[in-house]
Specification:
The complex is a heterodimer. Helix content of chain A is 68%, strand content 0%. Chain A has 3 helices and no strands. Chain B has 2 domains: 96 residues, Four Helix Bundle (Hemerythrin (Met), subunit A), CATH 1.20.120; 39 residues. Helix content of chain B is 75%, strand content 0%. The radius of gyration of chain B is 21 Å and the shape is extended. The chains are: A mainly alpha, B mainly alpha. At the A-B interface, helix 1, helix 2 and helix 3 of A face helix 1, helix 2, helix 3, helix 4 and helix 5 of B.
Amino acid sequence: MIPPPMPTAGGAIPLTHVLTIGAGLFTIGLFGALSRRNAIGILMAIELILNATALNLVAFNAYQGPPGAPALGQTFAIFVIGIAAAGAIVGLALILAIYRQTRTILADEIHLLKG
Amino acid sequence: MEPSWLLTQLRHIAHASFYLLGGMTLAAALGMVLTRNLFHSALCLGVALLGVAGLYLYLGAEFLAVVQVLIYVGAILTLLVFGVMLTARMADPTVPPLNRQAWAAALVALGIGWALVTALARTPALGQAPATVVPLTELGAGLVTTYVLPFEVLSLILVGALVGAIVIARKPE
């Protein structure tokens, strides 16, 4: 006897609902990146924005993947995650260097270049 | 008890837990942005990242869900917590967490979010195909055939970022 196929949520949930979650994550991340004072907080918010992007890529791949390449969207998501990791590493190194120089990482107190 | 009845119930549970997971992710993200204590903020980010990993499972991206947990929660979040602790004075909860332009930032973010959601509401239903699990072999084969050049460039970028980070963060002699 062949077992019945496992229920997947994809059939029941419209794509736009997944995309709405992605849009919400992006909006929250954007607000955080614009309004946080602590530079590490800004970095976290940027990670959230990149996560929203990757989520949308995977969602489009699951519902409307290109016929010849079923994993194209996921490949792009892997690249997004890799670039995000590189960005986080360099960003944190810069924040630590700035902290060592000025003893602050509050973005509105770092105004070395302000005329 | 009919098997089809059980299947329908299972589908309902899967359906409901998807929205629960999405709501949890959004709530954790909101908590991350609004908490005063930066360490709590990092913990909220961890919950949000795990929620996104769960959503990946729903969308048939098992490998990406594992990668999300390993790289984001395992590596990037640890790094961020290190950063928070090395700059411990800055995580003082009495320091106001948001800058003076917080209201303008909220306006901009809400405007863009509103535009995105209205655009989504006007979009006709895009594809009804159930999420099928993409085989991992497909993903791996793509990375070493069609997309081998961007893949190698990505590894170069990562090496460059690592070396650069060490040079920048090193104590001056």
